[in-house]
Amino acid sequence: MLLRASTSGFSSRAGAPMQVTRVDQIAIAVPDLDEALAFYERAFGLVPEYRERVDSDGVEEAMLDVGGVWLQLLQPTRDDSPIAKYLAKNGPGLHHLGFGVASVGDALDHLRDQDVRLIDEEPRPGGGGHTVAFVHPKGTGGVLVELVEDDAH
Amino acid sequence: MLLRASTSGFSSRAGAPMQVTRVDQIAIAVPDLDEALAFYERAFGLVPEYRERVDSDGVEEAMLDVGGVWLQLLQPTRDDSPIAKYLAKNGPGLHHLGFGVASVGDALDHLRDQDVRLIDEEPRPGGGGHTVAFVHPKGTGGVLVELVEDDAH
What we know:
Chains A, B: This is Methylmalonyl-CoA epimerase. Chains A, B: Keywords: Metal-binding. The structure is a homodimer. The first copy, chain A, is α+β, with helices and mostly antiparallel strands and about 150 residues long. Helix content of chain A is about 25%, strand content about 35%. In chain A, a hairpin with a 5-residue loop joins strand 7 (about 125) and strand 8. Residues about 1-15 of chain A have low confidence and may be disordered.
């Protein structure tokens, strides 16, 4: 049974303060990045565009371009990193979802106005030189959301 | 620190038996679909393209087009559906990742050859009239993967 949704679209209203425009990334927590990359190539034919160590987040990450969306594999580089804690609690798997927005600062202002719980109160540097901020999963119905500012991909 | 990955790419090898070409969908388990849709519109400016009840899977789903990738919100319609069990065990959040492939049947053959554990041994009908099959999270490093056969999106 298909039901066409009503189209009282936020995106078409004048003055809409926030619009997610794209999925920037899907991040997966892995215990061993080399092993995970070998699996994604063998099983799905996916290979990394680049690898990066982000010491401020305690991760080494590999980015696989899947039709314009980044699949990000995240391995902890120290025991006290958020990814290490996530793996210890939940095991490997889907970790967070990255949404592209025109301005992370404006998006944070909007989410604060909407009483959505944040992790980062201000935009900060993330992987690949992007400006990012994280929204708390308790604010979004269980999904850790990263806001990623639009630029060249 | 950026490290360019070596490019011994599977995708460029002759006779590569499997290539994921795109992210079809990111699925999120929600206890209340109406409430979740109201949140995604209010917080992120995202509205559904359509809603569908898939009785064979025990779900009602709403599909939000985020720059060409489907964000799929899944609410259980009965207590014994996989999504109801997932919510009872894990709470709401990221549930599965859908990869687009040219042929689900060929992809299943390839994954069997690679000893990757499957949930569906044969292609089957999924939401929106698509041909799909699920790969077991124990076969993929913790991620429930849905293979979705390419067609018009």
